Amino acid sequence: MKQFLSFVKKEFHHIFRDKRTMFILLGMPVVQIIIFGFALTNEVKNSGIAVLDQSKDAATSSLIAQLNASNYFDVHQNLVAYPEVEKVFKQGKVKLVVVLPPHFNEDLQHLNRAQVQLIADASDPNVANTLTNYATAIIMDYQKRITNDRKLPYTINTETKMLYNPELKGAYNFVPGVMAMVLLLVCTMMTAITIVKEKEMGTMEVMLVSPMKPLMVVIAKAVPYLMLSAINIASILLLSVFVLGVPVNGSLALLAAESILFTLVSLSLGLLISSGAESQQTAMFISLVALFLPTIMLSGFMFPVENMPWPLRIVSNVVPAKWYYIIVKSVMIKGIGLQTIWKETLILTGMMLFFLSLAIKNFKIRLA
């Protein structure tokens, strides 16, 4: 029994000495329950909406106040004219516009009925459906509240319009997310593993004593994955257009350029991981844990980022897939140009330069 206990004690010492094992055993469950608990929700809260109030009377003011008072909506903008509706959607600030027609209160008082139009950004059909249902429920509640015990009750009809995706096809949301996930995981994981493999086999040192500089050797390892990613981009777009029926409404050249930029970000991240990993297993673990879950959970692909607590919203800003996902949806689905997505483009460029500079620094220290 003493021998058995001594072996158990020894195993505890081994576990406590290995910080990575301690993190997997004790840290990962905590991290996962927090991320899954707060990110995995289909409920939509605090979504930004805009209002086009063409009546500006007491009834419309009361209805707008009731929408804003709910936990589901925040009125971000008050529009002046109908042409501003699509413009505000392209800016990406709101996902729903409530249009209140002229003479809203007069129609209620004299005709006992009025009309409200709900225009939703259906590039994410699930969110669009949820928001229009929430808004319709609030409008119906307002209708009941003002009707009281009238013999002829007020009737407010809601007309719903789905912008960019009138048929509510799931592929419109699925394709941009898959592009972000495939490019990030394939480029990062494969780049990290292939360089670590050279380290394990002892051939990296042989390559580094060649006439080529170490930096050029490392970049040469990444070039094939850049070319293969270009093939992946082309195949995904062809399948999306001709099989899934998802159009490319914006510039194809801009979409390709942004995809190449995101690929470079992923390759730089893979080089950074490979510079710190000692084995292929470690590189694989870091790639999966540090990239796969955040890409799925925090990029906005599966679950709206604005529904998450503010700490997770802050963390989502360092996930490259989030910015690329916004770019692909904007260019491919909404037909937006560079003048609107310049901020996301600059962020991805900054990430690429940051990851690449860190990777170069680490490779110089370890391998040069």
Describe the structure.
The chain has 368 residues and is α/β, with parallel strands linked by helices. It folds into three domains: 2-39, no CATH class; 47-163, abc type-2 transporter like domain (abc type-2 transporter like fold), CATH 3.40.1710; 171-366, no CATH class. 67% of the residues lie in helices and 10% in strands. It is built from 14 helices and five strands. Strands 2-1-3-4-5 form a five-stranded mixed beta sheet, sandwiched between helices. Helix 3 (58-69) links the parallel strand 1 (47-53) and strand 2 (73-79). Helix 7 (171-201) packs antiparallel against helix 9 (214-242), helix 7 (171-201) packs across helix 13 and helix 10 (252-276) packs antiparallel against helix 13. It is elongated and about 90 Å long. Mean pLDDT is 79; it is low at 364-368.
Summarize the helices and strands and which ones pair or pack:
Blueprint lengths: L1 H16 L1 H21 L7 E7 L4 H12 L3 E7 L4 H7 L5 E5 L3 H8 L1 E9 L3 H23 L7 E9 L7 H31 L1 H6 L5 H29 L9 H25 L3 H19 L11 H7 L3 H14 L4 H29 L2
Parallel strand pairs: 1-2, 1-3, 4-5
Antiparallel strand pairs: 3-4
State the oligomer: single chain
Number of strands: 5
The total number of structural domains is 3
N-C termini distance = 52 Å
Largest sheet, described in full?
A: 5 strands, mixed
Can you tell me the residue ranges where pLDDT is under 50 for at least 5 consecutive residues?
Answer: 364-368
